[in-house]
Amino acid sequence: MKDSNEPIHQPHDKLFKEGFSNPVDAAAFLRWRLPSEIVSAIDWEQLRLEPGTFVDSQFRHFESDLLFSAPLAMTGPEEGRSCYFYFLLEHFSTRPPYAALQILRYLVRIWDRWIVTEKDGAGSPGKLPPIVPLVVAQNAAGWDLSPQFSDLVHLPPDCETALRPFIPEFSFSLLELGEMPYEAIAGTPAGILTLRVLKAERLGELLGDAVWDESLLSQVARGLFERVLRYLMGGGIDKDSFRRRLETVSEPRIRNAAMTLAEQFVKEGIEQGIESAKRADILEVLEIRFGAIPAKVRERVEDSNGIGHLGHLHRMAVLAASLDDFSREL
Questions:
Q1: How far, in Å, CA of 139 to CA of 59, rounded?
Q2: Do the bridges between strand 173-176 and strand 131-137 make them parallel or antiparallel, or are there none, so unpaired?
Q3: Would you say 195 and 184 are in contact if contact means Cβ atoms under 8 Å apart?
Q4: Per the domain annotation, does 204 fall within a domain?
Q5: What pLDDT is recorded for position 75?
Q6: Is residue 175 located within the same domain as residue 87?
Q7: Taking burial as the number of CB atoms within 10 A of a residue's CB, which of 158, 235, 243, 317 is the most buried?
Q8: DSSP code at position 171
Q9: Is the domain of 38 the same as that of 163?
Q10: Which contacts qualify for 318-325: CB closer than 8 Å, 24 or more apart?
C-alpha cells in the first residue's frame, strides 16, 4: 500500500484495487467467472496489470476500473497475441440505466490506446485485440440490468431486421453481489474477502461473520487487512459494536492488529480534522486580505498537508505583502 496515512477517500475504489490489483487474485477471479473456452486459451502465468483508468471523470466516485492483459496460449498465427480483461466496479446506489453504453466508451478508449501504443512499434498495429468486460455490481438487490448492448436501442418491429446490422453488439459479464450468497464467492482469499466486504457494506453487515471469517483474515496480506479496516471505520461502524465484534475473534494476532489499527485510524481522523480546519482558516485570511483567490492557489492550499506546514502557511497568509509572495511558499 502506498500510504497508510492517507485520508479515507473513495473507499470503494481503494478497497477494490487493493483486493484485485495483484494478477494472481485477478486470475483466480477470471477463471471463476469466464467460460472454460476462454480460460483454456489464456496464458495466466503472464497476466499483468495495465496502467491507467478509463472511467469518465463524472463517474469517478461511482465506478472503479482495472485493466489486465495476457497472451493467448496458442501457436501458429495467434502466437504472441494478447487478450484484455476489463474490470469495472459499479458502486451506484441504484441501477445505472446505460451501463452498457458507458462500457462501450471505455472499451473504445482501451482500443484507441492500444493503437497508439502499437504504432510506436514496428509495422502495422493489425487487428484489434479482444477485450472481455466484467462488471461487479455493489448492489443490495437485483438491478434487472441487461448485459446486452443492443437491449438499450429501440428497434421498431417493422424494420428491426434491417436496422440490427447497424447496431453495436456486445455483452459483458455481470456479477451482482446483492444476488450472490457470501459462500458462493470464489477466488483467492484476498479476492473473496474484498467482494464479501463490498457486499456487506450495502447490506449493513460489515461486522457480520462473512467479513470476520478468521480463516480468510489470517490468509490475506497486511495491506488488504488494513484497507478492509479503513473501509469499516469509514462506513460509520459504532465503536462499541466494533469492540464487541473483536471480542469474538479467537486469533490474538488478528484481534490485536485490528485494535491497534483502529486506534491509529481514530488518531488520523483527528489530525485530518485539524488540517482541514487550518486549510479553511488560510483561505479565509487570504480572501479577507486579497479578495477572490485564483483557482490554482486555492487548489494548492487544499492539497497541502502536515500540521506544521499548514501552520507556516497560515502565518504567511497573515504576513505576506501580496498574494504572489504567499504563493511562493506553497
A1: 16
A2: parallel
A3: no
A4: yes
A5: 63
A6: yes
A7: 317
A8: B
A9: yes
A10: 318/285, 318/289, 322/290, 323/286, 323/290, 323/293, 323/294, 323/297
Of the candidates 177, 140, 131, 181, which has an alpha carbon nearest to the alpha carbon of residue 16?
A: 177
96 vs 286: which has the higher pLDDT: 286
Nearest to 230 by CA among 190, 265, 275: 265
Of 250, 279, 306, the residue at which a domain comes to its end is: 250
Which residue do the cell numbers 488520523 mark?
A: 268
Give 240-275 pLDDT, tens digit per residue.
888 888 889 998 889 888 888 777 766 666 667 778
The residue type of 70 is: A
How far apart, in whole angstroms, are the C-alpha atoms of residue 307 and residue 312? Answer: 9
DSSP 3-state of 80: coil
Q: Which three cell numbers stand for residue 111?
A: 482500443
In the structure grid, which three cell numbers stand for residue 310, read together?
Answer: 499548514
Neighbouring C-beta atoms of residue 256, cutoff 10 Å: 12
How many Cα neighbours within 13 Å face the side chain of 23? 14
- 8 Å CB contact between 65 and 53: yes
Residue partners of 42: CB distance under 8 A and separation at least 6 = 30, 70, 71, 72, 73, 83
DSSP 234-298: HTT--HHHHHHHHHT---HHHHHHHHHHHHHHHHHHHHHHHHHHHHHHHHHHHHHHHSSPPHHHH
Domain count, the chain: 2
| Residue that finishes a domain, picked among 250, 283, 298 | 250
- Among 135, 141, 136, 134, CA closest to 178: 141
In this prediction, residue 7 has a pLDDT band, given cuts at 50, 70 and 90, of very low
16 DSSP 8-state letter? H
244 & 291 share domain: no
C-alpha distances (whole Å) from 3 to each of 202, 236, 283 are 26, 22, 27
Measure the CA–CA gap between 14 and 66, rounded to whole angstroms.
12
What range does the domain containing 70 cover?
Answer: 11-250
